[in-house]
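Our consortium's second objective concerns turning raw sequence data into structural hypotheses that experimental partners can test. To show how far this objective has progressed, the report includes one record in full. It was chosen at random from the queue rather than selected for favorable results. The single chain below, 473 residues long, was entered without modification.
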Amino acid sequence: MNAMRKGGFSVRDQRVVVVGAAKSGIAAAELLVRRGATVTLSEHREFFDDITRLQALGVAVETGGHRAQTFLDADLIVTSPGVPIDQPVFNQARAKSIEIIGELELAWRWLKGPVIAITGTKGKSTTTTLVSRMLQAGGREVLVGGNIGIPLSAQVEDSQVNCVHVIETSSFQLETTTTFHPWIAVWLNISTDHLDRHPSFKSYVDAKTKVFLNQDRNDTLIINADDPQIKKRTASARSRCLTFSLSGSTHADFVVSGDWIVRRTTTGEEPLLPLAAVELTGSHMLNNVLAAAATTYAAGVEDSEVIVSALHGFRGLEHVMEPIGSIQCVCFVNDSKATNVEAARRSIESFTENVVAILGGRYKGGDFRELRGPLSTNGKGVIAIGEAASLIREALSDLLPVVEVYSMKEAVEAAYKLAKPEGVVLLAPACASFDWFNDYAERGRAFKEAITLLDGNMVLPGEDEEGIPVTRM
């Protein structure tokens, strides 16, 4: 394995400004202090919980907005992923040739172990988790981080040459990279998303492209052969390219053949794992399993039994196609992490009939009309929530009932009523959560809490003989 570390990067005695006091920014500030920098953390909020602790570590904290002079006096600026980088204060710093990088780029420069970077519009968290489970089952030491769980900066001190970093990378993280160079890069898919942040779809795709741009012939790029935009964008990649395909593309290296996921070779098909070992809800999840199997194989874990053992008992992540249970034959599924239209479409398509979808939140691009196809086949109704409710009603109300509500409790009550007697209540918002909630996880928890307030006895997943009517793999 070639970890491609760079030597000579140091921040000792430099003035570094960290922008944004979310998890990544705080982790970056702590890392920079440990590495000898003079650190100022700039935050637009007036207060956040870690102020006192950071000040005790020697971090200067500025709140209530970003001061231009602080930026202009810096030797280096490090941004959190949630901070837009097109603000005037950043342009002023660029004019003075002050380097601006993101937290991912900062941490990468000090990692000792090889990096597997996984990106895409949907499926990143599930694939990242699957890859880490498969590698661990194969005896590898693994640290999981990035856009999932622990910020990469918080893992730098634990990084060792033989420790593989499996990183979920978002477009916000990738757009501020310059030298980021993963050993294995994985690009799952691409569709419209985050247009509330990126000025155009092209800008969004450009950011994703950075996951492989610095790779060379010693590295591996794994892509979705069913996605023409990804194939076009990666055509000039210098790294070795492996492909996976859910549709069974004749040119793909990893596909579904019969009841197995297989690797195609020059002499035939090598079975990797049986479909019966996959316990995830929804046929679209098989795409993530394919990608994870290909990635694990590329990383040197080739034992089919090991890969199968990693899948045992894995039924998915919280808030990702999460079966909650059923009340009086109405099933509830939490897919709060379906924050864009394409993810919501895949979620709805996973069910065979009688879906009542809870859609809405803060609109961030995409066309809700793309949901008409699966809803015309599987849908029973839509509950519209949040800022995007009027857009949802406009796109779908001539197709099936659309009920607009003003709280998650009302949404669950209305969906339950509409789904009776034998339907599915599916939270797949196709939007960001920030109008009503802090993040998708808080939204998912609110959904689950509202279910517990309904009258009736909850039947937990696995106890209901009928089960949730999903499209099986």
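The partners drew two points from this record. The longest strand covers residues 268-274. The chain has a mean pLDDT of 91. Both points have been shared with the crystallography group to help prioritize constructs.
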